[in-house]
Design brief:
Helix content of chain A is about 50%, strand content about 20%. With about 400 residues, chain A is α+β, with helices and mostly antiparallel strands. In chain A, helix 8 packs antiparallel against helix 9 and helix 9 packs parallel to helix 13. The longest helix of chain A has about 35 residues. The radius of gyration of chain A is 30 Å and the shape is elongated. Chain B has a single domain, classed as Rossmann fold (3-Layer(aba) Sandwich), CATH 3.40.50. Chain B is built from five helices and five strands; from the N terminus they run E-H-E-H-E-H-E-H-E-H. Chain B is globular. Classes of the chains: A alpha+beta (about 400), B alpha/beta (about 120). The interface between A and B is medium-sized, with 18 and 22 residues.
Chain lengths: ~400, ~120
């Protein structure tokens, strides 16, 4: 028991606590409560040991009082029975202000009604642990954001006896996240402006409206234009990576038919295929299979990366085929080409940031090495998996598996 | 002769747009911020406006808002040329009356010029 309390102490005194730690504290707290109950039962009737029990209980209370996450115990109707010191530190309410009151009323409930309905349904009816993010109001009216975990404690009959809630103030983390996003938005604007200047100035020179340009000068202008285009792409993709790596990008939950998804991607990529004289074949017109609760934009972006790579690393006249297979739990999208393929010894590195296979660098010098890296982050976000088969001399097939 | 007003605070972008438009036979006037833009609109009554969004003093959104209030001005076509590429910015500008939105670094100058010409026919 002592070690468990020490464990709680250890977990909660650190400043940088993760959600995982929060969960650990919650479990440790529950364990302590469990152990207390066992202790109590064991000691019923054992008067001689009563003093030790009281002493032990005091120790537990002291430990719980001083945990840096707020810990509250309420009865089955939400009336507060216990609140530790952190409740006062976070909310500004002293424990005597809180005990005997209904917890939701104290924090003014700034969340939508549905949030509280789900919370109560989870802990009271389903008798499960509720975890989530919540906005509450401090005593001074200030709104703060917290990560919370509320567990129902059941009696022998399986009825709710009381609830334990653990809460961690994450307002500061949220603010840092916002600053990061604002910075990215500004940086992306500031980097694009000079690049678009170069693009338009060279473009104007190439149009001959300022006087004739010699053949040799035109070659230089074309080269300059391409270098600048590469820079624009790199800036765009790097900022995209930074945005995706921070967890803030919201994942949408939409429904789309695979047919229309492929159609959209096909239309998007058709000009690139035409420019390169590569034949793009859509192997699944009018298929009605439906993907539910997915981020269509992210999904399309992954497939576009596959197709764009397939086009870029194919020879003139070769084919790129889009297809899909349905299995019990997954859809498997595939994009196949007969292009230059990925050398076996380099296949493990292909998803690394900025990595480009040696033959790809020779075949197309201006890639950024970020396409597949971004695709792999996106796949993770939509709960999918990317894999591939590739053999020099035969070509490459990339697969995206999406759970149904 | 078609009159085009370029509202842009970056000199090099003004220059590229101006040279191209003049070669197409347009008369071009320029403003470096939202406040200047409104003065020019009042004076020259342009046939179309190319509008940057992020500018010192008053920004492009302010110009769109002011144009909407004036029954003469709200009919002038506006193409937003901005490097702000967020969905929210694009939606907001279009909702405020912009006819088109180009992210500058994504479009070659000839494409932008073609679009402008399509509004001037």
């Amino acid at each position: 028991m002592k070690t468990k309390i020490l464990k709680i102490h250890k977990y909660v005194t650190g400043q940088k606590q993760t959600a995982k730690e929060l969960e650990d504290v919650r479990i440790a707290t529950l364990n302590v409560l469990d152990d207390l109950e066992t202790e109590r039962k064991r000691l019923v009737g054992a008067n001689a040991k009563e003093k030790i029990l009281v002493k032990d209980l005091e120790k537990f209370k002291l430990a719980l009082d001083n945990v840096t996450n707020s810990v509250m115990i309420t009865d089955r109707d939400g009336i507060v029975l216990y609140a530790n010191h952190a409740v006062e530190q976070i909310t500004g309410y002293k424990s005597e202000d809180v005990i005997g009151k209904k917890s939701g009323v104290l924090w003014k409930m700034p969340m939508p009604v549905e949030y509280y309905q789900t919370l109560w349904d989870t802990i009271k009816n389903q008798k499960k642990v509720f975890t989530g993010e919540i906005k509450n109001k401090r005593k001074n009216g200030e709104v703060y954001t917290a990560a919370i975990a509320v567990s129902p404690i059941l009696d022998e009959k399986g009825e709710v006896e009381f609830f334990v809630g653990v809460e961690r103030d994450i307002t500061q983390e949220k603010n840092i996240e916002k600053v990061r996003i604002d910075f990215l938005t500004l940086a992306s604007h500031q980097l694009r402006t000079p690049l678009s200047g170069t693009k338009w100035l060279i473009g104007t020179l190439k149009r001959n409206i300022l006087g004739p340009v010699t053949e040799k000068q035109k070659e230089y202008l074309d080269e300059l234009y391409q270098v600048n285009e590469r820079m624009i792409k790199l800036v765009f993709e790097m900022l995209n990576v930074l945005r995706l790596e921070s967890d803030s990008s919201l994942i949408k939950k939409e429904t789309i038919s695979i047919g229309s998804l492929y159609e959209e991607v096909f239309l998007m990529m058709a000009p690139a295929a035409k420019a390169k004289d590569v034949i793009l074949r859509n192997g699944l017109k009018n298929r009605e299979m439906i993907i539910k609760e997915t981020d269509v934009q992210m999904l399309a972006s992954i497939l576009e990366t596959f197709i764009s790579n397939a086009i870029n690393y194919s020879e003139i006249g070769q084919e790129v085929l889009l297809d899909v297979k349905e299995e019990t739990d997954v859809f498997i999208f595939s994009v196949s080409d007969s292009g230059i393929a990925i050398p076996k010894e380099e296949q493990k590195q292909i998803f690394e940031r900025f990595y480009r296979a040696s033959n790809a660098k020779l075949f197309k010098p201006d890639g950024t090495g970020l396409g597949l890296y971004v695709a792999s982050i996106l796949a993770e976000k939509v709960g999918g998996k990317i894999s591939f088969e590739s053999e020099v001399g035969k070509g490459t097939t990339f697969y995206l598996r999406i759970p149904k | 002769m078609n009159k085009v007003l370029i509202v842009e605070d970056e000199e090099f972008l003004v220059r590229a747009l101006k040279d191209n438009l003049e070669s197409e036979g347009c008369s071009v006037d320029t403003a470096a911020n939202g406040e200047e833009a409104l003065e020019h609109i009042k004076k020259m009554k342009p046939d179309m406006i190319l509008l940057d969004l992020l500018m010192p003093k008053k920004d492009g959104f302010y110009v769109l808002e002011e144009m909407k209030k004036n029954s003469d001005w709200k009919l002038i076509p506006v193409i937003v040329l901005s490097n702000m590429g967020g969905d929210a910015d694009i939606k907001r500008a279009l909702a405020m009356g912009a006819n088109d939105y180009f992210i500058k670094s994504q479009h070659p100058i000839e494409e932008v010029i073609e679009k402008i010409k399509s509004y001037l026919v």
